[in-house]
Every structure is written in C-alpha cells, then in structure tokens.
Amino acid sequence: MFPKLPSHLFPFLILLTLASLCFFSSFLSSSSSSSTSQSLAISNCNLFKGNWVLDPNHTPLYDETCPFHRNAWNCIRNQRQNMSFINSWKWVPRGCDLPRIDPFRFLGLMRNQNVGFVGDSLNENFLASFLCILRIADEGARRWKKKGAWRGAYFPKFNVTVGYHRAVLLSKYQWQPKQTEAGKQDGSEGVNRVDVDVPADEWAKIAGFYDVLVFNTGHWWNYDKFPKEKPLVFYKAGQPIVPPLGMLEGLKVVLGNMITYIEKEFPRKTLKFWRLQSPRHFYGGDWNQNGSCLFNKPLEENETCSILFSAPYIFKHWPKEQDTNT
C-alpha cells in the first residue's frame, strides 16, 4: 500500500503544475526573438529545484464567480479559513525567474489548438483552476464535452479547447464477477480485471484531436480503492499474467504498455507531459473517512518522503522503445 503522508494543501501542487505550463507557453513562443530569449532562459533552469516563498502581494488570478469550479471545490466561495494566507505562497526556482502564467499569451500561442488532460482527480482538480485562469482572457468561454471527455471548456475567442478524460488507472479495468460452481455469476464477489495493454475507453480514441496532452495516474493504486478481497488482477492479450502481479508491479507494467500505446498511436507532433504522483493531501482520515486539508503552508523537505516510485521507470522508458512482454 502506498505510504500515507500527514499532508498538505492541494493549491501547492496546482501552482507547480502551472509552472510547467508556463514553461510550455514559453517553449511555444520560440517564433519571436524576445520570446526565444525568455524560453532559453527558462529552459536552462531546473523548475523543480526551488522553494515556496510567502508573498503577501501574490493573489489568485480569478475569483469565486468562475463557472468551471465544482461548488464543493470552490474554496474562495466556501470561505475556507486562511485562504488569503494560503494563496500568498508562490514557487520560486533557484537561480532563475519564473514568470506568472499569462492567460492572454497562453491562449494566443495556443490559438486553434487543443489541450487535453488524462488521468485521475489530480488532473481534474488542476483543470478547474486552469480553466478559471484562462477564462480571464476570454469571458465567452463555455463548458465543453465530447464523447469520452469528463469535462472541459471551449474558448471561442482563440478557438482553443481544453478537456479532461477521466481514466484513473489509464488502462481499461472492469469488475469481473466470480463464477459459481453452477456457472452463475455472483455479483458480490469477484476481482477487478485490468487489461494492461488496453487503454481505457475514455481516452483510447482521442489521438489526433489534442495538440498537447498531460497524463497522470497514481492515487488509485492503493488498497483503499481496491481492497485485497476485491483485488486488481492483471491481463495481457486477453489472458491472466502468470505469475500474478502485485499492485505496484502491475502499475509498472501498465505504465510501460500505455507509453508504448501513446508512442505508437499518437502523432509525434503531439506534445506530451507526464505528471507524477504527489503526497496525499488528507489529514485525520482519507477522502471518504472525514479527512480534510488542515495545513496552511507547504511541507518541509524533511516532512516528505519519496512516493514517486514510478518516476525512474517513466523517464527511463519514455520516449525510448521498451520491452513490455512482462
């Protein structure tokens, strides 16, 4: 089971992902000389080495009226305690300056293109804030949804679509009831079948639509979601993998196969990001056990532990070819 951390505020993860997208917007801007110099400056900087700095002048770019937040997630409208203090934290890389994301510039650079997120609620939570930021540049933005997409928005002023496809394991999985001796199915007992070489239906056919894709998975790979009495059982080419894989072993095999699928089926021109696991952000219980986010500042380095177990595997194998015959 993944280690549980007495963890932190989700806005900090959002801010760090925004830093990556800010870097992406600079990467796109290489067509102009001024933007090129900025892009080179940022590309020589390690955005992931730095510190959270408290800046009283740092405030959200949007307010509680944004229509893309779920009501339960709208911390500003719900008057969460210490929000002004929480929103004053900003990420400052060491040795370089990271400009704040500019929604006008971002959408201008992305004109006539589409951005997609695929994964679990970490991507969905980020999406909500991202859409609210982009809406500043286009108040005519409206909700958008296509087949397979969970939610999203369309920005008509720039002809840009940003969508989210919910696929918590990335691979296709389904409940497989236990067969009784009489040949009947017992719906209360069974296993969760995971086809490691088959992407979830929600994103299997989106190749060619998005110009930028951000993938993630991680928080569902634990025994809170899939208890041992209803385990994950891994299949490949329609047959159970023998010997059976444990949960973390199965995750590595899924990642390898999904990366292979992406590289094979998606255009090479599609810019792909892989967003890694974060510390859990519940304290005093899990998400469905009265857990809450009580912290007002980021964790110190000595308060975190490495749960990015999949990171070495991902960066070793993507975009290189790999053997997925496990």
TrEMBL record:
The keyword Membrane applies. Residues 44-97 form the Trichome birefringence-like N-terminal domain. InterPro entries: TBL, TBL_C, TBL_N. Residues 1-24 form the signal peptide. It is a single-pass membrane protein. It is found in: Membrane. Pfam families: PC-Esterase, PMR5N. GO terms for cellular component: Golgi apparatus; membrane. This is Protein trichome birefringence-like 12 isoform X2. It comes from Cicer arietinum.
